[in-house]
Structures are given as structure tokens and as C-alpha cells.
């Protein structure tokens, strides 16, 4: 893509002005509170013209969490356009279709304008998709474009809230909205589903009352387990000794954490798959000669919602087999399969339809779904993890050049970036791969076990909190706030 076209796009797309002076921690907290308040306000206001019962649809929980959204409200589209735009542009950059030097601040600014512009286009398209495909049952046909406009404008507001957070807050808007949505899901799931189920099991009496009540807390147990395991993983790292070339005796260490790219591979991989399930919902009504191929990719069936209406639900096909779309372990009144025992029975002995263009419907065991989802998620995490370190300047070559520029070298070796690069090549690619495999497996296990807030959501929240803590610690912003320091620690 030519730079003069980027210039035209940059002029068309307004941007949030950077602060003229560095902000204090108190000012950043104030801006973060303002943005979060606007987010939760939009999160709570139902879109005009939409049947409100869709707000509590359990089947939509994963879409809500991955996109920092709440389908049925003004926050229906959420951060989906931002994430999808980032993925698409990075793929185009990697393929050479877009040739922009991200180390050049001017070109980087133009790239960000392009990303914002493409996110706006995607926001409009996704608003139409959500309204057209039945994800959001519209009260009547006359409300269709009113709903689309509401969702599109709200999604564009989210894009600018994210930019505001990047420039004025303590983390990005994407991080803030995902963490906020997961926190809401955990609290809501515990108070409105788990506790009532446990109370109902005890009230029913009998010999199974206590075991059933304990099993009701299974999703919450796996939520806590994922948090503890991921926190432990964040503390694992390899440290390489460094020496300052200009002053003898001055040294340091280069930490290479086990989760070198944090949970970004999971964000990108899951967003990619979930976006595919949303976009391919157009295939639900396909008929004619291409119908068999469409059903092979994604097989949708009309299913009743809590509104009493019907909407297309992904129940089979290739996309379903690689999606994190598993039944809820909660009781049937919450859209689940009636408890943990029934849930695992469904995973082991249940089946899902796969439409074969040459042979009709084939029932595939659900354990195949479990295996395929896990394997594909791990593979995508590895791909996106390696891609991310190349795109963000965290690869061995970029890191070695950064160390060279500030005067660091590896003790016992000549001060040559090629030597440092060779040493880093022994660690960074391997750690990136292992870390990506780990977060992929942990997210898959947590999702399969039905953790509250979904496994991906919990993993992302822990990673986000850890990144925020690191950023604040590096900027020495926690010294005057001991209570906040203890909370984040």
C-alpha cells in the first residue's frame, strides 16, 4: 500500500491528542475510571429495538468475553473490530502487501490511522451481521437500521475509548474492557448461577445433596486453579547476565520470561476463531448448490432463545469442531446440561453433526471436538506468538540491536550485535514456542472444564493484571499507593 494513500486516510480519521506533559499516576487513574464508567454504562444500556431477554443468553457468554461485549446492549460489538483489524493488518504487513516501517514514528502513526479506519469499517459490517443473523432479535423489521446505527456508533466510540486509554490511562482499552467483562462474568456467574444451584441441591436433600452442592462450585474451582497456575507461570523466567561496555563492574540481567509474549497468542487465536463463527453465521440460510459446502464449513440450526424467538446456533461443521463452543455445565434452566456429571458425560459420549458434501450428516463424537479444539488452539497460539515477536520488535535481532544501542553486551563475548543475536536465538524462539503452547493448553483445559468467565477470559485477565503491574512498577507509580501495590502484588 502506498504511503500517499495512508496520508489521505490519516487526514480523514480523527485522533485523540496526546497529553502535552507526562501524566501523574493519579491523573491516569482518573482517566481510567472515566473510560471504565463509560464502558459499563454502554455495557448496561440495552440497544433500542432489541428484545431485552437476549442479555442473559448463556450461549453468548464466550462471544461476550472475547470481545469485551454484552450482546443486546450498546456494547454488542465490543472490541471485536479493533482486534480483527489488528490481526488482518499484521497479516498483510507480514505478507508484504503493506510495507510500513513501524520503527519510523511517522509511518507508525499512519499505520495506526489505517488500523483505526479499518476497525470502523469492520464495526459497521459486524453491526449488520449481529442484527441480520439473529444474534440480536430485533423487535420488528422497522427497527433494523436503528439498531445497526446504534451498534456501529457505539463500536466507533469504543475504538476512541481504547485510544484514550492508550494515551491517558494505565493500560490499553482492550485490556481494560476484557478484564472488566470477565470480572462481571465471574461475579454474575457466582451469584446468579453457582450459589443458587448449590442452595437448590442442599434444599433437595437426600444422600447426594452435599456432593451435588460441592460439584456446583466446580467451575469456580477451575477458575481459581487457572489463576494460580498462570500467576506461577508468569514468575518463571531465564535471566542472561549483561555487562555495560563503557564502565567496568556495571552489570545487569536480561530477563526472558516463560510467557515471553504473555497471553497475546490466546487473544489473537481465540478472537480469530470466534470471529469466524460470527461472520460465517451468514451461511445459516444458504441454499442451492453451495449449501453442502457451506454446511461442511459451519453447520447452523435454528434454536430457541430465552426470548422465545429462534436464532441460528452453530452446532457442527469444521468451524464448530475447532471452536471453544462447549455446552454449559450449569443447570438446564441456565442453558446448560444440568450439572458437572451430565456435562462430562456429554463430552465423553455425546456427538455433534458434521455435514459431508458427499455423504450428508455424520455424527462426530464430542471428544473429537475437544481434541481438535485443543490442537488447533495450540497451533494458532504458536503461529501468532512467533508472528507477534516479529511484529513488535521482540525477536532476537531487534533485542540484540536494542542492547547494542544502549551499550550492553554479554560478558565474555565481543560487543557485536550478531553475537548477542546468536545467543538470544538459543532462548527466545524456544521460550516463545513453549510459552505459546502453555497458554494455549491452559486456556483449552479451563474452557473445557467450564471455568467461570471462560478459561480464555480468566487467563487473559490474569495476564492483563500482571502486565499492568509490570508497567506501573517500571514507572515507579506504586510507591505512593501501598494499598494498591499490595492488591496488584
Give a brief rundown of this model.
60% of the residues lie in helices and 9% in strands.
Blueprint (SSEs and pairs):
Layout: H1 3-12, H2 25-44, H3 61-66, H4 80-95, H5 105-132, H6 144-168, H7 173-204, H8 209-216, H9 218-234, E1 237-244, E2 251-257, H10 264-279, H11 291-297, E3 299-304, E4 310-316, H12 318-321, H13 340-349, E5 351-356, E6 360-365, H14 366-391, H15 396-406, E7 408-409, H16 417-424, H17 428-448, H18 455-474, H19 482-488
Antiparallel strand pairs: 1-2, 1-7, 3-4, 5-6
Helix pairs in contact: 1-5, 2-6, 2-7, 4-5, 4-10, 5-6, 7-8, 7-18, 9-17, 9-18, 10-14, 14-17, 15-16, 17-18
Could you explain how this protein is built, in words?
This protein has two domains: 1-208, Preprotein translocase SecY subunit; 217-489, no CATH class. Helices cover 60% and strands 9% of the residues. The chain is built from 19 helices and seven strands. The strands form three sheets. The protein has a three-stranded antiparallel beta sheet with strand order 2-1-7. A two-stranded antiparallel sheet has the order 3-4. Strands 5-6 form a two-stranded antiparallel ribbon. The longest helix is centred in the middle third of the chain and has 32 residues, at 173-204. The radius of gyration is 24 Å and the shape is globular. The relative contact order is 0.12.
Amino acid at each position: 500500500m502506498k504511503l500517499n494513500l495512508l496520508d489521505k486516510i490519516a487526514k480523514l480519521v480523527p485522533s485523540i491528542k496526546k497529553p502535552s506533559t507526562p501524566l501523574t499516576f493519579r491523573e491516569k487513574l482518573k482517566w481510567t475510571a472515566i473510560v471504565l464508567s463509560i464502558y459499563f454504562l454502554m455495557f448496561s444500556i440495552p440497544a433500542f429495538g432489541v428484545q431485552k431477554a437476549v442479555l442473559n443468553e448463556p450461549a453468548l457468554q464466550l462471544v461476550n468475553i472475547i470481545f469485551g461485549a454484552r450482546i443486546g446492549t450498546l456494547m454488542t460489538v465490543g472490541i471485536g473490530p479493533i482486534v480483527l483489524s489488528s490481526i488482518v493488518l499484521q497479516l498483510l504487513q507480514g505478507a508484504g502487501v503493506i510495507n510500513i516501517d513501524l520503527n519510523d514514528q511517522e509511518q507508525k502513526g499512519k499505520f495506526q490511522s489505517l488500523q483505526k479506519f479499518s476497525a470502523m469499517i469492520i464495526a459497521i459490517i459486524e453491526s449488520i451481521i449481529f442484527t441480520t443473523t439473529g444474534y440480536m432479535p430485533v423487535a420488528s423489521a422497522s427497527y433494523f437500521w436503528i439498531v445497526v446505527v446504534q451498534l456501529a456508533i457505539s463500536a466507533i466510540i469504543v475504538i476512541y475509548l481504547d485510544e484514550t486509554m492508550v494515551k491517558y490511562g494505565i493500560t490499553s482499552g482492550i485490556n481494560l474492557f476484557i478484564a472488566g467483562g470477565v470480572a462481571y462474568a465471574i461475579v454474575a456467574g457466582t451469584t446468579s448461577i453457582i450459589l443458587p444451584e448449590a442452595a437448590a441441591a442442599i434444599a433437595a436433600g437426600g444422600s447426594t445433596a452435599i456432593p451435588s452442592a460441592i460439584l456446583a462450585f466446580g467451575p469456580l474451582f477451575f477458575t481459581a486453579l487457572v489463576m494460580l497456575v498462570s500467576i506461577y507461570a508468569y514468575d518463571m523466567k531465564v535471566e542472561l547476565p549483561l555487562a555495560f561496555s563503557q564502565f567496568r563492574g556495571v552489570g545487569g540481567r536480561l530477563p526472558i520470561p516463560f510467557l515471553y509474549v504473555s497471553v497475546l497468542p490466546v487473544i489473537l487465536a481465540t478472537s480469530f476463531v470466534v470471529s469466524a463463527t460470527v461472520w460465517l453465521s451468514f451461511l445459516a440460510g444458504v441454499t442451492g448448490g453451495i449449501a453442502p459446502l457451506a454446511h461442511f464449513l459451519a453447520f447452523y440450526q435454528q434454536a430457541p432463545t430465552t426470548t422465545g424467538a429462534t436464532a441460528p446456533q452453530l452446532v457442527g461443521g469444521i468451524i464448530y469442531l475447532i471452536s471453544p463452543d462447549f455446552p454449559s455445565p450449569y443447570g438446564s434452566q441456565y442453558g446448560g446440561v444440568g450439572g458437572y456429571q451430565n456435562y462430562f458425560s456429554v463430552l465423553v459420549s455425546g456427538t455433534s453433526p458434521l455435514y459431508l458434501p458427499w455423504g450428508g450428516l455424520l455424527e462426530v463424537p464430542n471428544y473429537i471436538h475437544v481434541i481438535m479444539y485443543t490442537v488447533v488452539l495450540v497451533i494458532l497460539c504458536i503461529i501468532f506468538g512467533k508472528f507477534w515477536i516479529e511484529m513488535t520488535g521482540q525477536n532476537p535481532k531487534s533485542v540484540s540491536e536494542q542492547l547494542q544501542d544502549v551499550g550492553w553486551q554479554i560478558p565474555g563475548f565481543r560487543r557485536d550485535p550478531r553475537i548477542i543475536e546468536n545467543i538470544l536465538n538459543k532462548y527466545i524462539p524456544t521460550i516463545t514456542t513453549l510459552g505459546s503452547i502453555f497458554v494455549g493448553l491452559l486456556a483449552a483445559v479451563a474452557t473445557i472444564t467450564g471455568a467461570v468467565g471462560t478459561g480464555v477470559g480468566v487467563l487473559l485477565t490474569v495476564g492483563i493484571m500482571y502486565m499492568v503491574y509490570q508497567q506501573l512498577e517500571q514507572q515507579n507509580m506504586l510507591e505512593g499507593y501501598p494499598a494498591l501495590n499490595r492488591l496488584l502484588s
